[in-house]
Amino acid sequence: MGTTFFVLALLQCALLFFLSRVGSRLDREERKPAPQRMHWPRTGLIVPAGGNHPRMREALESLLKQDYPALYPVIVTATADEPAAGIARELQARYPQLRHVVAGFAKGCGQKNHNSLKGVEAVEDEVELLAFCDSTHIAPRDFIRRLVAPVVDGEDFSTGYHKVVARDTGIVTMAYALCVQLMRYLQGISSFTQLWGGAMCFRLSAFR
Asked: Which fold does the domain 38-161+194-207 belong to in CATH?
């Protein structure tokens, strides 16, 4: 029994050391300037939205203010009269490049997936790449360039992950922040990487 606990403790220490190395690498990459290219492919930005999250308006506007030169943003809601649809129409008045698609209610799949597919239908004849983002996470101004760059460099898809900035030290807050950080670090290990629907980019051919 003692040997088992000793081996498990060693494995835990090895995992924590490995994750710390991954975390350091991710942090270094995050501090690098965003990639620069002479040409950026036409990219459809699909944002399924629903409800009335208190930061939704700010998050959506952060996506509409991206410094990506060939972005085709689409906000997709299930209905035309839900709160998220009202936010989309309000933003359209200030960002004329934005499209608002009303998807209708999903049948046979989740509403988010249904909304995403309807967003793809709206832009797939005009773009080379598809980027998908959540409607409630604040994006830095260079976020889309960072997300798209690996695909421009030859990958079929890329994925991101969100980071929690804790605003208090409550047990639930800290536990959530640590769990998300662990999953983010696991995303940095190729054998663990999974597409995260809150930030991913595909070549249109790969998506199809």
From this structure: Spore Coat Polysaccharide Biosynthesis Protein SpsA; Chain A (3.90.550)
Q: Is 207 exposed, middle or buried (0-12, 13-18, 19+ CB in 10 A)?
A: middle
Coil vs helix vs strand at 71: strand
Hey, where are the domains in the chain? 38-161+194-207
Please give the pLDDT value at position 180: 84
Q: What is the dihedral of CA 80, 86, 88, 89, to 10 degrees?
A: 90
From the CA atom positions of the chain, what is the Rg in Å? Answer: 19
Give the distance between the most distant pair of CA atoms in the chain: 67
pLDDT mean values, one per 10 residues, the chain (208 residues): 74 73 69 76 96 92 95 96 95 95 93 94 95 93 93 88 84 89 78 78 90
Tokens of residue 89, six digits: 């129409």
Q: Which residues contact 133 (CB under 8 A, 6 or more apart)?
A: 45, 46, 47, 63, 139, 198, 199
Q: Residue 96: phi, psi to the nearest 5?
A: -65, -20
**Strands of 43-48's sheet in order across:** 99-102, 71-77, 43-48, 129-133, 199-203, 157-159
The letter for the amino acid at 187 is Q
Full-model pTM: 0.82
